[in-house]
Amino acid sequence: MTDLFTPSSEALTQQIVEQIERGAFAEAEQSARQARGHYPDDAELARLHGIALMQLRRHADALQALEHAATLAPRSIEVQCNLGTAQLNSGDADGAIERLRAALRMSPGNPAVLLTLGNALMAAARYHHARESYAMATHGAPEHPGLRLNLAAAELELGHLDQARLHTDEALQLHPRFDAAHALRGRILQSQGQPAQATEAWLLAERLSPRNPQYPFAAGQALEDTGRLGAAAEAYERALRLHPDDGPALGQLLFLRRRLCDWHDLDDLSARFQQAARDGEAMVSPFVMLAEDVDAALQLRCATTYAAAIEQQTAPLRKQLAFSHAKPAPDAPVRVGFVADGFNEHATGLLVVALFEALADDEDLDIHLFATTVDDGGPIRRRLAAATTLHDVSALNHAQVAQRIHDTGVEILFDLNGYSGRDNAELFALRPAPVQVNWLAYPGSSGAPWMDYLLADKQVLPDALRAHVSEKLMRLPRCYQPNDNTRTVGTPPSRAECGLPGQGTVFACFNNSYKLNPAAFARLMLVLQQVPDSVLWLLSGPEGADDRLRTAAGAAGVAPERLVFLPRLPHADYLARYVHADLFLDTLPYNAHTTASDALWAGCPILTCTGATFAGRVATSLLHQLGLPELVCEDEEAFLAMATQLGNDREALATLRQHLSRQRTRSTLFDMRGFAADFHRAVQAMSARYRIGRKPVDLDL
Questions:
Q1: From CA 220, how far away is CA 242, in angstroms rounded?
Q2: pLDDT classification of 2: cutoffs 50, 70, 90
Q3: Together in a domain, 545 and 659
Q4: Is 660 within the bounds of a domain?
Q5: CA 26 to chain CA centroid, nearest Å
């Protein structure tokens, strides 16, 4: 009801529009609600109320307001576009598409309808149709940069990188300071393998829109890819200043600090990161969590929350792809696929190459590798290609790789990355194969509904940890980690050429720097203090990490020169250095994995401490398989005592090395024929259950 003191509906409309334009959405919502009380039959006031409610993320209320507006003005194209957007925000992409197509019949070729329809089609992962809708809209609004950018985004999802880049450039010609266009250009350049140029694009987007935390975060990721870790850390810090509780930025900054051995504020970052996981922050990195001193329950919670977010994100595309899987003939070989970014001179390639060579003549298995990184031209890639069918899918996006795997007819698909390296979660969430297995690079449970099995062993995942695994467990009767038993150990240089003293015990720890946390480093310093004339040989870290560790050693009362650093070397040369290492001292909570098998193969004994999670139990599994359980300690005190005892007993160290030399040829750890037989049985067991229509179950071979 109105009176003489009530402003006109036009005046109220203008007031609400101004509030929305300056981002005062709560004020606009209140004004619109009050105005509608005076003018309940005004469609424009109802529409503006719906827009304000959408901005406040009150999606159900927004729909109600806009539906009332549509009742009052059924022919209003603006109302129909707003309603479509509201339906989209509520998760009803199909309903939005139906509504907007009806609106298009009322107003053929309307650019606003076509734009909103394209957005709905994108949300439904109907990228081809979205591209058509955006392209048609550009004819009616050729000077609209946002349309060009949306068209570029559709082309990017379709894997058409050159076309996406062309449309992004068109958007920038229309609006050179369009921050979102520079950001999308960064995504395209990253996909084209140009991280340095991608970095510049995201940094420019950040300068144009300094309040958007997504831009410094994306710049940080690109900077990491170029090896500029210090600059990447600064970018993540900027993102966190804008969004202090952002799980991805917290995780990346924490992990970089560990890689750089930059431990200032580490406890605070770690506590915030762990709390984000406990609070169910969706995109907290499960891989970063592996290096945190937490239990397996929190690791699984982190992974499960992360996987649930990926599952929701990929649901529209999974629906569009709608992969179905025909059962193979009973006598058909099992077609087995493996996806990894490490089918090169990489830890993964080094571990699996001899296994695949041992399986090359297996007529029951048809092995296909899907390499997500380009060929480095090295011997590992050549050996893998000779032993298997290798598909280079490095230029394809997740949907295209999934289609290739499905078209290949893979029955059992192994994810050799998990949440490490080039995360394969989005690919595997599309379900390109009927049976999917988590194995090798990510030492933990995926928490993912798309993973059927986790391939492990009883040492890394004993019964006591079973409750913290979401997959069904397939446990091998040996260490789950294969090894290349053809690795060449080069000719070692002298101790002096390695920077080592002529006398004294040489302790080694060639683990990646992110595993060498303050507590692990403090343990190593205690060992050095109790073993006179000893040195600690470490893998050289990035960007000043070595100097930071020397400073930390001095603060712990150890002369900085007692730390010696090994530069990164070709693999055979790196293995040769182990001849001068008397004892490898392992880390917690994240053990040596590939590095442990390298050391043992090269003849260097490892002292480890059994951790509370999969990631902290791998060296234990290797040593048990090798027949050296006496080098496995149950707690920190035992580890310190044994390291000190062995470090001060040259005869004991010599005996250990001699024993290891014998065990290397006698134990089954490096027997890849035997491993291949066990692996064959595991694959056949999974296939048999699938082919007879039985669900996955825990299996111990």
A1: 14
A2: low
A3: yes
A4: yes
A5: 37
**Is the distance from CB of 42 to CB of 64 less than 8 angstroms?**
no
d(CA 198, CA 203): 9
What pLDDT shows up at residue 700? 96
- CATH number, domain of 504, equals 3.40.50.2000
Q: How far apart are CA 89 and CA 84, in angstroms?
A: 9
Burial of residue 4 (number of CB atoms within 10 Å: 0-12, 13-18, 19+): exposed
Asked if residue 422 has pLDDT above 90, the reply is no
d(CA 385, CA 387): 6
Domain identity same for 608 and 465: no
Q: Are residues 455 and 521 in the same domain?
A: no
Q: Does 431 share its domain with 544?
A: no
Residue by residue, DSSP assigns 165-229 as HHHHHHHHHH-TT-HHHHHHHHHHHHHTT-HHHHHHHHHHHHHHSTT-THHHHHHHHHHHHTT-H
Parallel, antiparallel or unpaired: strands 506-509 and 699-700:
unpaired
DSSP state of 502: S
Average pLDDT, the chain: 95
Domain-located, residue 410: yes
Phi, psi dihedral angles at 700 (to 5 degrees): -110, 120
Look at the chain and report how many structural domains it folds into. 2
- Output the pLDDT for position 3: 58
Structural domain for 548, as ranges = 496-670
